[in-house]
Design goal:
2 domains, 5-stranded mixed barrel, 4 helices, 7 strands
Length: 154
């Protein structure tokens, strides 16, 4: 094999190896940063990983909000109308947070009954519900919205 052909072959093989390594690192970084969504029922069934950041959504259960008078700690329950999950959060809740409200909490699952949240997201108006929460509620028996209600938001 001639010297210039061998150099080209080495350069091509080196480029392919570097490209494969870069793609591997990118895919690894993306897989570590993806937060999967779970409804309370799937958490109770053991489908959600412990000690890994996940998102959980549902409706805040009536009468379940308990605030610590000496700090910003708050705990509340969410439901998908099948199962209930307790959320603990320390911080300022969104202005639209209230009982009966659809929310998504992001945090780490301590056990199948409790999630320690780092972020709580609430819906932004009276007609919107996060798509994941709406799909979960419809899956587990909540009537949800009709098509007329979905198309009314401008």
């Amino acid at each position: 094999m001639k010297q210039h052909r061998r150099n080209k072959l080495i350069a091509i093989i080196g480029g392919v190896v570097l490209l494969a390594a870069a793609m591997g690192l990118i895919l690894y970084a993306l897989s570590e940063n993806i937060n999967h969504f779970y409804p309370p029922t799937e958490i109770k069934q053991g489908k959600a990983p412990l000690d890994k950041t996940i998102r959980v959504g549902g409706l805040v259960t009536q009468g379940s909000v308990h605030r610590n008078q000496e700090s910003l700690k708050v705990s509340f329950d969410i439901t998908d109308n099948q199962n209930v999950l307790t959320i603990e959060f320390e911080g300022i809740l969104p202005d639209l947070f209230r009982e009966g409200q659809g929310i998504i909490a992001e945090g780490k699952l301590i056990d199948q009954n409790k999630l320690v949240a780092t972020k709580v997201l609430a819906k932004h108006d009276e007609k919107y519900m996060p798509p994941e929460v709406e799909a979960t509620l419809q899956k587990y028996g909540h009537p949800g919205k009709s098509n007329d209600q979905k198309n009314d938001s401008y």
